[in-house]
Amino acid sequence: MKHPDLNLLIALDALLQEHSVSRAAARVGLSTPAMSHALARLRDQLGDPLLVRAGQRMVPTPRAADLQARVHALATEALGVLAPAPVTEIAKLDRMFRILSTDQLMTVIGPALDRKLRAAPNVSLHVMPPQRDDSVQLRDGTIDLSIGVYDYAPYSDLPTDLRIQQLFDDHYVCVVREDHPTVGSSLTLAQYAELDHVQVAVRGPPGGYVDDLLAKHGLKRRIARALPYFLAALQLISETDYVMTLSVTLVKRLAGKLPIKSVQPPRSLGLESYQVSQLWHPRNDRDPAHRWLRDSIAEAARQTIRR
Question: Which pLDDT tens digit goes with each residue over 247-259?
Fold first, then answer.
């Protein structure tokens, strides 16, 4: 008899707690496809679908409901046995952490993270814009952590010696000013290409993912303004007839604070959802203070996205 894969126990616990593949993946630091694969293996091993769709949500089967408390207790016990020594006396921790992140992500999770970090009043954060050489800076210790999107080229080809943890799933939406003269509640592909665009070029020159998708349709857009910061770009959107394509999570976070409206991008453009993750060098895996910071960031992301 083969030994059971105990990693499936942790995956099963996350799935039964979250009732969502994407949230379960974020909970344990897996990609959404990896958690989907784990669910398929669990269904095959247990002979039960475990989670089934009910409208827009997933609900547990009777077998899954019966297992939930027992599985959670076993998973908690197993993780407790294998966990490194906990960080003690957080209140006395005196350290500065250097993080690469966009203003978009700090706007989304920053307030919740700040509340978490108040447990260590002598900890300070130095947040800097992302660079093209994130991995180099992580490896040489110039920075402690990087938060961003790493599941598209060239960042999907990250060195295998780095650690990555998914924080949350996000997807794209378009924004224009509330009283835009030509844009209603949706955009056709032709209309989208004809509008002047604002792009936040975080790591280099304008262009990239959206432009590659447009090229597949024989179209191109004009990037009228390329800016380094999302909040500056959104302020510009609110006073012009430009359009911008960005994170729906950020737009929801700023709802009511700027005279802008969200518009569904053209479905035929083919924009895909993406994952926001944190990245670090394995030298910090067992550092209690660094682990506390990572856990704080992950929890801040969970609290924010669940709102």
Answer: 999 999 998 999 9
